[in-house]
Amino acid sequence: MSMTSIEPAHRAIPASEGEREQMEAAFRAALEQLPENTGFPHDVRELARPLFEVGWISGVRTGHTGPALADVPLPPHTFGTALSNLSSAMHADSGPSIGQLVSYHGSQECCHGRYWVTRIERELDRRGRESTLYRLSEYRNGAFVTALTGVHTWSVTALPQHWQR
Q1: Region labeled Disordered — which residues (predicted)?
Q2: Tens of pLDDT along the chain (165 residues)?
Q3: Residue 144 burial (CB < 10 Å; 0-12/13-18/19+)?
Q4: What pTM was computed for the model?
Q5: Among 81, 155, 159, which Cα is nearest to 116's?
Q6: Buried b vs exposed e over 68-86: b needs ≥16 C-beta within 10 Å?
Q7: CA 50, CA 63: separation in Å to the nearest integer?
Q8: Residue 48, CA atoms < 13 Å, CB-side half-sphere
Q9: Distance (Å, whole) CA 147 – CA 138
């Protein structure tokens, strides 16, 4: 074998049905350890599932999930911390959502202020990168009135929930 070879020493094998069943049981057990009021959305749990699967199956194949760890639970906050970090990352990347109050600080200085997001347009540019544009509206006389269109992500900051009451 040459030093420049990048061929693995062992052939990769997809997860077996048994490994997947073990992983599912372990994933459910991990979720059950979370405090009841955690309330992670379904999409966050589903985003965490493949990460958990990779870690679990890697552990099984390297012998790190064997009987020596049986009946030795992790501290309850371990899973909460992992999923909350995942949840935060997921929401940070997604930007404001429809119906959310935002602060506009873009190039039109005369329009700086607070607005409601009433439309989100996502498309791919020529290089395949996602571009997100917002329609911002004011709420007047019981209706949303468009104030700004084509607003870029970097021109708005989502306001904390307590501002929206």
Answers
A1: 1-21
A2: 455 555 656 666 777 888 888 888 888 887 777 766 666 677 777 777 887 887 777 777 777 665 555 555 556 666 666 666 666 665 555 678 888 899 999 999 999 999 999 999 988 777 777 788 999 999 999 899 999 999 998 899 888 764 554
A3: middle
A4: 0.46
A5: 159
A6: eeeeeeeeeeebeebbeeb
A7: 20
A8: 23
A9: 6
